[in-house]
Specification:
Blueprint lengths: L4 E4 L8 E4 L8 H5 L2 E8 L5 E8 L4 E7 L5 E7 L6 E2 L5 E6 L3 H10 L5 E7 L4 E13 L6 E6 L15 E7 L5 E12 L5 E6 L8 E6 L5 E6 L3 E7 L6 E7 L8 E8 L7 E5 L11 E3 L6 E2 L5 E8 L6 H22 L8 H6 L17 H6 L1 H5 L3 E6 L4 E4 L7 E4 L5 E6 L4 H7 L3 E8 L5 E9 L7 E2 L5 E6 L2 E6 L5 E3 L24 E4 L5 E5 L4 E5 L5 E3 L9 E7 L14 E7 L5 E6 L7 E6 L2 E7 L6 E6 L6 E5 L8 E2 L13 E10 L5 E10 L7 E6 L23 H6 L3 E5 L8 H18 L3 E11 L1 H12 L5 E5 L5 H5 L2 E2 L4 E2 L1 H6 L12 H6 L13 E4 L9 H13 L4 E4 L11 H20 L5 H4 L7 H14 L1
Parallel strand pairs: 48-49, 48-50, 50-51, 51-54, 54-55
Antiparallel strand pairs: 1-2, 3-4, 4-5, 5-6, 7-8, 8-9, 9-10, 10-11, 11-12, 12-13, 13-14, 14-15, 15-16, 17-18, 18-19, 19-20, 21-23, 22-23, 23-24, 24-25, 26-27, 27-28, 28-29, 30-31, 31-32, 32-33, 34-35, 35-36, 36-37, 38-39, 39-40, 40-41, 42-43, 43-44, 44-45, 46-47, 47-49, 52-53
Helix pairs in contact: 9-10
Protein name: Prolyl oligopeptidase family serine peptidase
InterPro entries: AB_hydrolase_fold, Peptidase_S9_cat
Pfam family, one: Peptidase_S9
Length: about 950
């Protein structure tokens, strides 16, 4: 910013004063550690109170509870964890956890001392507070809100072995009278929706007194519903709060795994309460070798006729014969050991001879495996715990296994009349190879258990699943650019969108997917209408396809679109058109965002506002016409606004954010640039202006790339230590411009497409006069890292580059393993981000043409490379290959590896370190600052620890 002289002319003042405006300092990384900002928000049921957490990036936080439409505000210290407030349903009380302070957390890491949360309960009328120590969990008593249940952490002296009792004290605290009632050895507890019933389990030492209990919160009467030497868990009330189900675990000497039963409770009436207990292994019709799954929560059907749950493999203990063999082997081992000492070889027993052979430690990879062995290994626990959906019909005591090893995916439809089964077993292998997924879809009648094939080889890559209506009798689906409906009762199908003069193929999806679908927003609450988007407009279509209404008025002509629906109503089932509905609105040309309003019973969405701001988190108070939403832009951090009208008029700011921002130099705003790619496509780029921007002056610029980024033009960049190193707010504050262009891809040319889009974008940005063409750098992470690595092989427009976790050899990368999932990259290449198909053996030129390593001799741009040794997305060898190639060619390159880190940097010290190093590098390359020694000279391995200690000390001093 230039120094500005201001002449202050005051009436009655005879002296003219001149002052010089103070230039604000740029952000430093130590400022990021102290940066104060808001986290989350909560709204009371009556809309009268709003809460949020606030505080520094590192350090202790506060919880703010404020009158939504008033200035009255309370502040509470909550420690280092951003715990949010929970309001009672009557909006009279708030409760929140208070964690340990930041200093205590750091000290505890060194001493391994356990830390415990406190609970603060606040009476909002007078701000009177009650505190409870060593709290594990808490819950208000549903709609009644008279009570709060508080469960305490176990004593440090409590047994910690696997089979030890987990029960602890639960305090029932009456909020008005402050009277309390203690329940001992509680394992789990749960209030029903009304809050007049509390179900809880007892898990005591030696399982003495274990059982399931129900407390009437009005009378205090407790009913024992079940008692046994067992563990009870997973209490799950139905929505109405008049029935619940849970699991019961008994020890069984025949099995290694716990053996579970389902308990269903309904018709609640004290000692006359109805109870169903289903123990699968005692049922002759139950699937052999299976047991009820401990990881699947059971639930009642809406009509309380059926219990639904999961089952999985149940492992038996070894039989006596196996035990005898083991004992004989042990005896043989003793003989062998004795003989070894005496240097005499005894004659081995037959069992010893057989079992003494060391087993090989190996894996067999077969070309017919539907999933790679690495995928099976990575997903082993998921497979072991996989839950096969099953049911038990109470009246006729009928068990039905709905899902199985072939049809693993089964979704029970609303109203529990039908279930939908997906069987991809015939197509799984090919889908894992080329990414083009197909599935057979079955309809299962839950009354008879019969199933019939609805669709064979449904294309599933673009979301080929049924969207079932709330009545459970009809569904929508998508095939080849058209949405249809199907009636489960008569198998009647209807074309929903074929006669609408609009495309329902996503025009921006440039992956190798056959006619990718636009958004399907599901069904109206009465199941009469499907709500389906084309690329811009939202349509209300009758289930038979005969009635079509555009809820938006030719928004395509304005390049405006519905970008999502705000879900405002508790426990909603579909979109209730008899209530006001709200939608996110987005303009693809200007990037303006806003909120659209569909009044109850109407058929036209009105845009309430759309401007150069980002809007999110629209919330409605459960019991009042009070709304809050977040508003921000690239100059203003997110602020909560509130309104008491349906059209959101007269909205007022509830809070403020980032109080320290005014102290620092900040971005001067943004500019949207239109440009034409080398392929002839009209695209856009977001150019963010540096702090203290002066028109006519050119600035060093970081070009940050991924895919399409301009939709986030109005997003606020919060100062932080990101997992990829780059934080736009920091660079803008420090005098850099930041350019984020859109990239449109051509199949079989992902790298060349990036060149075709990014280079013209940079030139268009230079033409504005804002970007210094001699000092432009490029950076990206993951897919952006790949494109960065490739761009510097094709252009010298960049003075420096930083690539995080990049793909560098598309040929070798194609068949490497994505270790985070265990699958290969082949499907990702052919049907997802890679955009290269088929395999390189039939597409060698495209694979080589788009691989950085095949053009490595042309690199003239210095490169900072980040690749971690435990990267489970882009194999570490990709970074090594590029680094060693550049090093062999004597190109300026430095690679940084954080040991044990995955695809992004998770540990805070590492995130800090890389963020600082990246800026040191760019400051040297683009601003002419002194080169950091780690770049100019490197660091000897023996000196590395001293180097890191020095940097850590300097940071601590700052």
């Amino acid at each position: 910013m230039k120094k500005i002289t201001l002449a202050l002319s005051l009436l009655g003042c005879l002296v003219a004063h001149t002052t010089t405006a103070q230039v604000k300092p740029a952000l430093t990384w130590k400022d990021v550690s102290k940066w104060n900002y808001n986290r989350g928000s909560a709204l009371s049921a009556d809309g009268g109170w709003t809460a949020w957490a606030t505080g520094p990036t590192e350090g202790d936080l506060k919880l703010i509870i404020k009158k939504t439409f008033d200035t009255l505000s309370y502040s509470y210290p909550i420690g280092a964890t951003p715990n949010m407030a929970t309001f009672s349903k009557n909006s009279k009380y708030a409760a929140f956890k208070v964690s340990a302070k930041d200093a205590e957390v750091k000290a505890a890491k060194k001493t391994m001392k356990p830390l415990y949360d406190k609970l603060t309960v606040v009476s909002l009328a007078d701000n009177k507070q009650t505190t409870f120590e060593r709290v594990r969990s808490f819950a208000f008593a549903g709609d009644a809100a008279d009570w709060i249940a508080i469960q305490f952490a176990p004593l440090e002296t409590a047994p910690k072995d696997k089979d030890a009792a987990k029960g602890t004290d639960v305090l029932l605290y009456h909020l008005a009278s402050k009277k309390s009632f203690n329940l001992g050895n509680v394992g789990e507890y749960a209030f029903n929706k009304a809050g007049d019933k509390l179900a809880y389990t007892v898990d005591a030492n030696g399982q003495n007194g274990n059982g399931l209990f129900l407390r009437d919160m009005k009378t205090g009467a407790i009913t024992a519903l079940d008692n046994d030497k067992a563990v009870y868990k997973s209490i799950n009330w139905n929505e109405e709060g008049n029935a619940f189900a849970l699991l019961k675990s008994n020890k069984n000497e025949k099995y290694k795994d716990e053996v579970l039963s389902i308990i269903g409770i309904n018709k609640i009436n004290g000692d006359l309460t109805a109870k169903v207990v289903y123990n699968g292994i005692d049922d002759a019709n139950f699937t052999k070798g299976m047991g009820i799954n401990t990881n699947a929560t059971p639930y009642w059907s809406d009509d309380q006729s059926t219990l639904f749950f999961g089952i999985n493999t149940l492992t038996k203990k070894e039989d006596k014969k196996a035990d005898t063999i083991a004992k004989d082997k042990a005896k043989a081992d003793v003989k062998l050991d004795s003989a070894a000492k005496a240097k005499v070889k005894p004659a081995p027993t037959p069992e010893a001879k057989k079992d003494d052979i060391e087993k090989p430690d190996m894996i067999i990879w077969n070309w017919q495996d539907r999933r790679l062995q690495s995928a099976q290994q990575t997903q082993e626990m998921r497979d072991k715990n996989f839950s096969y959906v099953s049911s038990y019909r109470v009246a006729d005591k009928k068990f039905t296994q709905l899902a199985d090893s072939v049809m693993r995916s089964v979704m029970v439809a609303p109203k529990q009349l039908y279930a939908i089964g997906y069987d991809n077993s015939k197509y799984e292998l090919m889908g894992n190879l080329d990414g083009q997924s197909y599935t057979d879809i079955y309809l299962i009648d839950l009354k008879s258990g019969s199933k019939k094939l609805l669709f064979e080889k449904m294309y599933a890559t673009n979301g080929g699943r049924l969207n079932v209506a709330p009545n459970g009798k009809i569904a929508s689906y998508y095939v080849d650019g058209v949405f249809y409906s199907i009636n489960f009762e008569n198998n009647q199908k209807a074309n929903l969108t074929g006669n609408i003069k609009a495309s329902f193929v996503d025009e921006l999806d440039d992956h190798n997917v056959n006619k990718p679908a636009t958004n399907n927003y599901g069904w109206s609450a009465d199941s009469k209408y499907a709500l389906i988007m084309d690329n811009y407009d939202l349509w209300k279509i009758s289930a038979d396809g005969k009635s079509v209404t555009a809820l938006t008025d030719n928004w395509k002509s304005k390049k405006t679109a519905v970008a999502g629906r705000h879900r405002l109503y508790v426990d909603e089932k579909g979109t209730d058109l008899s209530k006001d509905q709200y939608f996110a609105v987005f303009n693809a040309k200007t990037k303006d965002m806003g909120i659209g309003y569909l009044p109850a019973g109407k058929s036209k969405i009105n845009v309430l506002f759309a401007d150069a701001n980002a809007y999110s988190m629209l919330t409605k108070a459960e019991n009042a016409k009070v709304f809050t939403y977040s508003k921000s832009n690239n100059l203003q951090s997110p602020v909560i606004y509130s309104s008491a009208t349906s059209d959101l008029t007269q909205a007022r700011a509830v809070n403020a954010n980032t109080p320290d921002q005014a102290k620092y130099a900040w971005t001067a705003g943004s500019k949207l640039i239109d440009y034409v790619s080398a392929h002839g496509d009209t695209l856009q780029a977001a150019l963010y202006l540096p702090a203290n921007y002066e028109k006519g002056k050119a600035y060093p610029t970081i070009t940050y790339i991924y895919e399409r980024l301009t939709d986030g033009l109005n997003n606020y960049s919060m100062p932080s230590f990101p997992g990829g190193g780059f934080n736009a707010a920091m660079y803008l504050s420090n005098g850099y411009a930041v350019l984020m262009p859109d990239i449109k891809y051509k199949l079989n040319d992902p790298g060349m497409s990036a060149v075709a889009c990014v280079v013209p974008a940079v030139k268009a940005a230079i033409a504005t006069g804002i970007v210094d063409e001699k000092n432009v750098a490029i950076h990206g992470h993951s897919w952006g890292g790949y494109q960065t690595s490739f761009l510097i092989t094709q252009t010298n427009i960049f003075k420096a580059a930083a690539a995080g976790a990049p793909l560098t050899n598309m040929i070798s990368m194609y068949s490497l393993i994505y270790w985070n999932s265990g699958g290969t990259n082949q499907a990702i290449f052919e049907a997802s981000q890679g955009r290269l198909t088929p395999g390189y053996w039939d597409n060698w030129d495209a694979f080589a043409r788009n691989s950085p390593v095949y053009h490595i001799k042309k690199v003239q741009t210095p490169l900072l490379l980040l690749h971690n040794d435990k990267d489970g997305a882009v194999d570490f060898t990709q970074g090594i290959e590029y680094y060693n190639g550049l090093r062999r060619l004597n190109k300026p390159v430095v690679m940084i590896t954080y040991k044990g880190e995955n695809h992004g940097i998770a540990k805070l010290p590492n995130r800090k370190d890389y963020a600082v190093r990246m800026m040191e590098y760019f400051d040297y390359m683009l601003k002419g600052k002194q080169a950091p020694e780690w770049w100019s000279k490197g660091v000897n391995r023996l000196d590395m620890e001293k180097h890191l200690e020095t940097r850590a000390f300097e940071e601590a001093e700052n």
